[in-house]
UniProtKB/TrEMBL annotation:
Protein name: Putative oxidoreductase
Domain GFO/IDH/MocA-like oxidoreductase: 230-353
Keywords: Oxidoreductase
Coiled coil: none
InterPro entries tied to this protein: Gfo/Idh/MocA-like_OxRdtase_N (IPR000683), Gfo/Idh/MocA_oxidrdct_glycsds (IPR050463), GFO_IDH_MocA-like_dom (IPR055170), NAD(P)-bd_dom_sf (IPR036291)
Pfam families per UniProt: GFO_IDH_MocA, GFO_IDH_MocA_C3
Amino acid sequence: MANLIRFLYHHALALSLLVVLRARTQARVCQRRHDCGPHCRAWAGTGASATAQWTIVATPHTLPIYINVPSALCDAEAPRWCSDRMRVFGALRAVAPVWETAMVNVGLIGLGKMGLSHLAIVNAHPEAKLIGICDTASYMCSILHKYTGIEVFSNYREMLDRKSLDAVIIATPSRFHGEMVREALLRGLHVFCEKPFCLDPGEGTSLAELADQKGVVNQVGYHYRFVGAFNEAKRLVDAQALGRIHHLRVEAYGPVVLRPKGGTWRAKSSEGGGCLHDYACHAIDIVNYLVGRPDAVSGTVLNKIFSRDVDDEVYATLHFADGMTGMIAANWSDDSLRRMSTQVTLWGTNGRMVVDRQEVKTYVRGAAGCTGAAKEGWDIRHTTDFHSDVWYYLRGEEYSAQLDYFIRCIAEGRRENISSFASAVQTDCVVSAMLQDAGGAWRRVDAGARTPAQSRTGEGGLLSLVTGALR
Ligand SMILES: NC(=O)c1ccc[n+]([C@@H]2O[C@H](COP(=O)([O-])OP(=O)(O)OC[C@H]3O[C@@H](n4cnc5c(N)ncnc54)[C@H](O)[C@@H]3O)[C@@H](O)[C@H]2O)c1
């Protein structure tokens, strides 16, 4: 019955809007998905010719609304034109309680650096409504309540129990993730949790299983998975444009800890602090995304630069099942860069690729049998070739895009996941292996030693030690 009322209501709305908004058009409007921002994703043209009128069918929450868009506005002004129309719909929402029920009601736990960023993004999302926020710091709660009017809680369980939430976003220090995710899942909520997922991969695995049982959307904040350049790199790897990849290098540098200091959770390894847990996990996750999880790690180095109790830089060798190797280098005490900068280089039998959030650089050997997925020789494509506009920009498109994806999965009843709990557990497993490997055996350099003859045939020396350990 509710659906019928909703259907009739929206068709009546649609008809009246058609009358109001009808305009003569010539042709193309909104052909590119990003013309009108995120709304376009749900929009489709219903007719096109050089002279015909265009009708756009917008389907927020799968309810159709028809508007005509004059193509004369298309190139420069269509985005603004369309968003003006969406504002009309926004205004209608106020008098449309049936529509209001279709909003995704979100609660947010943790109002620190990351939580405030999520708050701003979700608060601006056209299909989400932030109805509860929680932090143990009363100052943050009172300030935010004063300026947003959103109900605040100091106890997250109370918020989960008292508010009619569909979903929760968890942005607390990492050691709390596990317990908070569990409480949310037990209440049947969709969950977005910040990275790293869990400090104990065993706990993460059981939560991933629980999320599957509950059939809820589950996502971890590895935002590089929403960067167009990394997605293009994944496409090229899957298309085997580089042939068989035999080695990779991932590097992540940026300014987080630049002088001796303590006192915050980031300075305590038991709370998820340290460069490996809090920073290098992004680099590990992007490797997992591009080529799959390594099978083993060796030579892990966790150095302190300014921190007393945790690592500030991380180096290790990664070993993959098919013989491929990799090296990771991460340093969060590097202020030669203004923000985190992550780059992956992959070498394959057919070429090389260097990718970061700004560009994808490929060198493809045509003679080796180019698959057609990439241009022969050197090719550079930039982030502007891949990016889609977001409805709200903060820190980078990827931060908005990941929450947009989470909310849309919920609103549209999709149970697929990018950066699911299950995939984030794989990253936690690599972190855990590196922690166990760190400080492991060294081979001392012996000035008088003779090089074992076997090492030249690959049957002795360091290489055989590593491959032997993998067997
Ligand atoms: N994806 C990214 O780029 C990115 C960037 C920064 C941080 N993070 C992750 O986000 C999470 C939070 O990091 P941050 O930098 O925002 O930390 P932060 O210290 O700035 O903020 C954490 C907030 O959580 C609150 N809090 C602590 N315990 C709580 C509890 N029991 N209940 C409710 N609130 C509680 C604190 O009062 C604080 O306001 C971490 O897991 C971190 O790894 C991700």
